[in-house]
Specification:
Length: 307
Amino acid sequence: MNNEKIAIVCPCFNESRTVICFLQELNAVLSTLPGNFIVIVIDDASTDDTLELLKAFKFNAFHVSLTILSLKNNAGHQQAIYQGMLYANTLDFSHVIVMDSDGEDDPAAISELLRLKNCDIVHVNRGSRKESFVFRLFYFMYKILFRLLTRRSMSYGNFCMINREMLCKIVQNSFYHLAAFLSKQQVNTAFVLSDKRKRIDGRSKMSGFNLLTHAFRSFAEFSEPIFKRVLKLLIYILVFLIIQLIIIRVYRNWIGFWNILEMIRYDFLLLYFAGFIIVILITGKVLMNFLNLKRNDRKKTFYEKIG
């Protein structure tokens, strides 16, 4: 039996309908794999009986153990993952796998991840999504916007495997959006493909507001380059307006009065647009400073180990 140790970090919030089925499925998969596994479930201050169900659960496989981390206050999905990583960083292991506990991430993909342990990061690319048409449409638009603003594509979520060195980097820096944070890393990265399944209870928690929050967090990871690109766009607009003003002053006798009025009308539209960009830049800079302050707060440990 391979004695290599693997930590599996699973955040959950109000998953009383799903978490036990997920853990049973995870047990069935891990029992066939070599190595020693510690499953770290982070209960994000659930208001149902999720925590009680977790306390009563035991893995059948002798090389799989369960540790429960309880958060006193609801910290959100990403922060729950980070708290699990903070705890995992105190353990002796070679790799960490991150996956959701609602059944959407298929445990069967773990065997594919473990075949690529020589990589720093292994992402699970999403195949088909079993979501509504409206959700898939907005998610497609989000991916396009993300690519335009960051010049990167991201076809994966939190489901991934990282090595010890990458975990240390994550713990030191913190993150707002794990997948976006990992997409910035210039390391040896691989991908496996797995379809995104339906939640075990069939009810998706990803509402329109949650998707908007999800998008904002991913953009926050790229706040500096996005700020620079928007600033560059503003400079281009201002340079264009200055050049046009010079042309009007030098060649006004040839351009004609009505043509000048038409050009000025479009210039006002550009000025309104430039003003809008300035407001975005100022707001973005304030948010960047706020996020940098909050990033340090996020590094604090506030979980309680249950088992």
